[in-house]
Structures are given as C-alpha cells and as structure tokens.
Structure to design on (240 residues):
C-alpha cells in the first residue's frame, strides 16, 4: 500500500464546539495530508465538518470560523429546514415540505384508510393518529411517482434515451440509481424538493444510460442537458 493510500482519508481529530453569534455550534475536526486549505462542509448526518491541513496551527481556527459564522449558520438553518424525516412522526399544525414549498399540515380523525388533500397552503390529512405516518408516506410516494414520471418522460425524450422499469423507494443514502438494464429507482423524498432538483436527479440517472460511471464524459452529458448542475448538486446536499 502506497503512502497516499494510507493517508488518503482525512484523520478525524474529534468533536469540537464554538459559539457563533450567541449560538453554540458543534463540529467535527479533521486533518488532511492532501489539503492546503481549510474546508467547511455541512451534512445533516454529520453536521459541520471542518478539515484543516495536517500541519495547521490550530490557534487561528476559531478566528476563521468566526469570520465564516454567517455562512455556517445560514447553511445549517437551510439544511435543518430541508431535512424531513417522516418516521419522526407528524402533528397537527406542523410544516411539511412538498415540491419545494412548506405547507401547514392539518390532521383530522376519520376513516381507516385515510385521505390526503391539498388546498392552497394547507395539506389536509384525514386519518386516525396511529396511521398518520403510513398514510402520508403512501401519499408522498404517489406524488413522487407522478412528478418523476412527467419529468422522466420529458427529459428522456430530450436526450433521445429509453429506460426500463421505474421504481419509487425509501432509500436512505441515494436520490436515484440506474441499473445496467436501464431500470431506474428514485427516492420518494424527491416529492419534497423543487422541480429543478427533481429534474437534475433524473437527468443524472438518465446520463448513466450513456456512461455507467462518473467520469468526465458522464458529467459532460449531464452538463449538456442541465447546465447549472453544479449549483443544483450543492442544493441537493441540504436535503441529505
């Protein structure tokens, strides 16, 4: 094993915290042998991650984080707003996302099977309290299937491509995937996102019908049909 392979991944130093604009922010500190810059990344699973060069003098780190406090707090707030975990439960009056907008959820008792309807800025859920998550889950899957099907057919036609079976799944780590046979799988949580993000994910997966990899050739296909894919990919990370 070469030295580069040994140190290819940043070394996790530990958990740290800092007060930014009166708010305590926890972060994971990492050191990298192959970075000359300080990098900040925010993910819902890990929170703020700060990566510094391996021989960096830590005495100046707090000052840098204070300088970037506006960026850190802004993106943490956006990430927390976009992150939606249905399994956490639902309650009347809660704000829930649908196609990039937030709606007030109104839960009313009634019916064993349940019913969901959309009216202006409100989503009405008619069900018993124990079935709320199940009913909403089915509704989101249906809405995702409808939105994805329309975008998929439109973009496949524009790209001159065909595809196999379409499946909507509850994937934890993927927004979409494409098999070698051309079958496409998409995450139901796409139904919570704005249409441009749905289109980007679909174009991404359709591009695998041309290149089953993530080489420069693959990204060239993506960029041809989605010129602002880099911006959209960054936005997509706030939903992780």
């Amino acid at each position: 094993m070469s030295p580069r392979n040994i140190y290819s991944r940043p070394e996790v130093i530990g958990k740290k915290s800092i007060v930014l604009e009166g708010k305590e922010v926890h972060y994971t500190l990492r050191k990298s042998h192959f970075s000359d810059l300080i990098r900040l990344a925010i993910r819902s699973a890990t929170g703020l991650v700060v990566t510094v060069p391996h021989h960096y003098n830590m005495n100046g780190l707090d000052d840098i984080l204070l300088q970037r406090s506006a960026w850190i707090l802004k993106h943490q707030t956006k990430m927390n707003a976009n992150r939606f975990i249905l399994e956490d439960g639902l309650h009347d009056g809660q704000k829930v996302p649908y196609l990039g907008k937030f709606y007030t959820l109104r839960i009313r008792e009634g019916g064993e099977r349940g019913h969901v309807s959309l009216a202006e800025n409100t989503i009405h859920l008619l069900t018993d309290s124990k079935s709320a998550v199940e009913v909403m889950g089915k509704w989101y899957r249906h809405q995702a299937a409808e939105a994805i099907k329309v975008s998929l057919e439109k973009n496949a036609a524009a790209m001159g491509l065909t595809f196999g079976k379409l499946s909507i799944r509850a994937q934890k780590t993927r927004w979409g995937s494409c098999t070698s046979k051309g079958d496409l799988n998409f995450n139901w949580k796409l139904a919570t996102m704005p249409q441009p993000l749905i289109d980007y994910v679909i174009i991404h997966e359709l591009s695998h019908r041309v290149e089953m990899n993530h080489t420069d050739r693959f990204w060239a296909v993506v960029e041809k049909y989605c010129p602002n894919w880099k911006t959209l990919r960054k936005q997509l990370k706030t939903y992780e």
Summary: Residues 132-159 form the longest helix (28 residues). The chain has seven helices and eleven strands. The radius of gyration is 21 Å.
